[in-house]
Design a protein that fits this description.
With 133 residues, this protein is an alpha+beta fold. It has a single domain, classed as Glutaredoxin (3-Layer(aba) Sandwich), CATH 3.40.30.10. The chain has four helices and six strands. It has a four-stranded mixed beta sheet with strand order 2-1-5-6. A hairpin with a 5-residue loop joins strand 3 and strand 4. The protein is globular and about 40 Å long.
C-alpha cells in the first residue's frame, strides 16, 4: 500500500485545491513501520476521494521533483529544505507551498493517529478556504 510519489508539487497542490483540499505530503523511509501506519490512513482516504496525498522518500537523492518554487530538487533535498527529515512527517500545503496546519511528526499514539490526522485535515481545509475566498 503506497502513496504516489511526489513529482510536481505545484501541480499536485493545484489539483488538490480544485477539490477543496490541501495537498498532503508525507515524508517516508523504506522499511519504516510508522510510515506504513500513516499510509493505512491516507491510502483509503485517497481512494474515497477525501484527500490528495503524495510521498517524499527522504533517502531518494536520485529522483527529481518540481518544488513549490519551480526548481527541480531531489526528495532528499526537499525534506532538508522543509526541515522535515523525520519520517513520517505529514505536511499540509496550499498552492504556494505555505503550510496550512501544524505538521504531524511521527506516530506517538497509534490508536489516536486517525483522529490527529482528521483534525489537521479539517483545520488545513478551513485555512485553505479562507485563503481562496
Amino acid at each position: 500500500m503506497n502513496l504516489p510519489p511526489a513529482n510536481d508539487l505545484p501541480r499536485h497542490a493545484f489539483l488538490a485545491q480544485k477539490k477543496g483540499f490541501p495537498l498532503v505530503v508525507m515524508t517516508s523511509l523504506s522499511g519504516c513501520p510508522y510510515c506504513d501506519l500513516v499510509r493505512q490512513h491516507l491510502v483509503p482516504m485517497m481512494a474515497e476521494g477525501k484527500v490528495l496525498a503524495v510521498q517524499l522518500n527522504l533517502r531518494d537523492s536520485g529522483s527529481q521533483v518540481v518544488d513549490f518554487d519551480g526548481v527541480l530538487r531531489s526528495p532528499d533535498s526537499i525534506g532538508k529544505r522543509w526541515d522535515a527529515r523525520f519520517a513520517p512527517t505529514v505536511l499540509f500545503f496550499d498552492t504556494n507551498g505555505k503550510e496550512l496546519a501544524e505538521r504531524l511528526r511521527g506516530v506517538a499514539v497509534p490508536d489516536f493517529y486517525g483522529a490527529y490526522l482528521e483534525d489537521r485535515l479539517e483545520s488545513s481545509a478551513r485555512a485553505l478556504a479562507k485563503r481562496v475566498s
